[in-house]
Amino acid sequence: MMSRTGNSSVIPLSRYPVIPFNRKTGERTNRQTEKGFTLLEVMVATAVLSLGIVFIYQAFFISLNSFEYYNNYLKVSSWLNEKIWEAQDNLFRLGPLAQIDSSGSLKVDNNNFYWSLSYGLIDEAQDLYKLYKVDLVLFWQEGKRRVNLARDAYALYKKKE
Question: Residue 46 and residue 38: Cα distance in Å, rounded?
Answer without folding.
Answer: 13
